Task: inverse folding
């Protein structure tokens, strides 16, 4: 069989990079007074092409490229498609919600696309130095996007907090990479896995595992590494939060799966109970803190911390079942979270003029479409049947039970009941009669444009598909789980094809 050209294995990243460069060049070429909204459509088209290129990679044999630094497999394709889909919806949301006279719209779309490059590369990297580079590409773009609203104090505050804490987390990850190199003499994922059982300094391996987990768990906002989340969610523009709360976390969870199942599979007895404890802490802290919130974005921030705990419960599963359950949950959470932040953006406005739960009162009367969609996405977050959230939690807790963590599943179910309280609080507020303003006129009705309407349609369709007919997505997640656990020895040489064999 003829070898696959290396460029094919990073084609989505190449397309996204060229799209970002094109957006920047066109933006710099346009006269200052000209509107930049068309650049958003350029970014959306480029992201769509990258999504199709990712699907096309399914036709490639599983293998590595560029001196065994990147890999193409059903696992990488699953997360490439997911990330490109999230980015596409986030761009469509921004097209109709960014103010026409906002600063540097071209840079906004370029940063979103460049951030997607890092996220996609993070999911396919099998060399730890490339992992660090990809993480930095993604992080730098999101740090800037978090502070996009420069005319408010909360925007720069969110960016600075995100940058400082994110830099510390990245330093932990890099230090862990340095220690594992010192213990094994390599930074290639499969070679590390082969070298760990015979490593002379086992304490370096344990320290590397701990430091790398700290860095990754920060990126997924799991407790106790969650302190940045509420302030960043509140200070960043809602279209940016729709992206920040989903795509970077999907990439970080993909990295976490690769680290624990491919780099440290022999240390499962150590990292499994550790993630067990982080899952319980994240669920409990996130839900208890969310109960006290009156600001919708802060409530959803603590909700995301709790959902990180639900997802981490799947890591207690054995073999491919835990990987597939975690991958499916990431897809379900991304669909419903992007959707609810799209509704929040339309209701609260770009400047968050209506940030509180009480401001959503009567939404279903003012805008029946947005009110119904808000309640629908809240129902999915609760885990009501026939929504993606239900099957996501079902598969995650089932994997935990299968791995012997019955108490973890019970704690997760109890926390799901606790979470229903604050989700239903917002849902009841939206269903109540609207409050008339002092002048007797009702609160303005949000307007749904074509682009944001398409974004909402994609989010609703994905949430329903994952809740009613989840078979295809689950099969894709299972295929990715099998290739993630391929024998490490099959990937030592560049370009060598891997066998898709699940562990027993």
Result:
């Amino acid at each position: 069989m003829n070898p696959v050209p290396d460029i094919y294995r990073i084609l989505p990243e190449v397309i996204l990079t060229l799209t970002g460069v094109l957006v920047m060049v066109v933006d710099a070429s346009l006269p200052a007074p000209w509107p930049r909204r068309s650049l958003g459509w350029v970014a959306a088209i480029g992201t769509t092409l990258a999504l199709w290129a990712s699907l096309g990679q399914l036709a490639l044999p599983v293998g590595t490229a560029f001196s065994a630094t990147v890999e193409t497999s059903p696992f990488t394709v699953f997360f490439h498609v997911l990330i490109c889909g999230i980015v596409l919806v986030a761009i469509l949301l921004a097209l109709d919600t960014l103010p026409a006279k906002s600063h540097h719209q071209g840079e906004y779309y370029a940063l979103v696309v460049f951030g997607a490059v890092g996220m996609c590369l993070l999911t396919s990297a099998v060399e730890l130095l490339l992992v660090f580079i990809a993480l930095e590409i993604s992080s730098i773009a999101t740090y800037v996007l978090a502070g996009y609203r420069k005319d408010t104090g909360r925007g720069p505050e969110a960016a600075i907090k995100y940058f400082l804490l994110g830099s510390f987390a990245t330093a932990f990850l890099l230090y862990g990479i340095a220690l594992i190199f010192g213990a094994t003499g390599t930074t290639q994922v499969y070679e590390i896995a082969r070298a760990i059982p015979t490593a002379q300094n086992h304490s370096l391996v344990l320290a590397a595992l701990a430091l790398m987990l700290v860095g990754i768990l920060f990126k997924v906002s799991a407790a106790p590494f969650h302190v940045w989340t509420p302030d960043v969610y509140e200070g960043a523009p809602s279209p940016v939060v729709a992206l920040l709360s989903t795509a970077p976390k999907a990439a970080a969870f993909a990295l976490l799966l690769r680290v624990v199942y491919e780099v440290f599979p022999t240390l499962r007895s150590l990292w499994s109970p550790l993630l067990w404890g982080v899952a319980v802490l994240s669920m409990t802290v996130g839900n208890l803190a969310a109960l006290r919130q009156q600001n919708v974005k802060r409530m959803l921030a603590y909700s995301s911390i709790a959902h990180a705990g639900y997802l981490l419960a799947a890591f207690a599963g054995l073999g491919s079942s835990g990987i597939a359950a975690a991958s499916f949950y990431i897809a379900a959470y991304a669909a419903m979270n992007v959707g609810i932040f799209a509704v929040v953006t339309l209701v609260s406005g770009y400047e968050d003029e209506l940030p509180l739960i009480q401001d959503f009162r009567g939404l279903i009367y003012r805008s029946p479409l947005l009110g119904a969609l808000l309640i629908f996405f809240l129902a999915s977050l609760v885990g009501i049947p026939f929504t993606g959230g239900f099957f996501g939690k079902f598969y995650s807790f089932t994997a935990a039970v299968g791995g012997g963590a019955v108490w973890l599943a019970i704690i997760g179910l109890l926390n799901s009941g606790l979470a229903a309280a604050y989700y239903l609080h917002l849902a009841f507020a939206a269903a109540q009669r609207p409050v008339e303003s002092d002048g007797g006129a009702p609160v303005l009705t949000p307007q749904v444009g074509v682009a944001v309407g398409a974004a909402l349609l994609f989010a609703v369709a994905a949430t329903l598909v994952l809740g009613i007919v989840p078979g295809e997505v689950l099969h894709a997640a299972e295929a990715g789980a099998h290739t993630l656990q391929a024998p490490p020895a099959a990937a030592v040489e560049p370009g060598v094809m891997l066998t898709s064999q699940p562990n027993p």
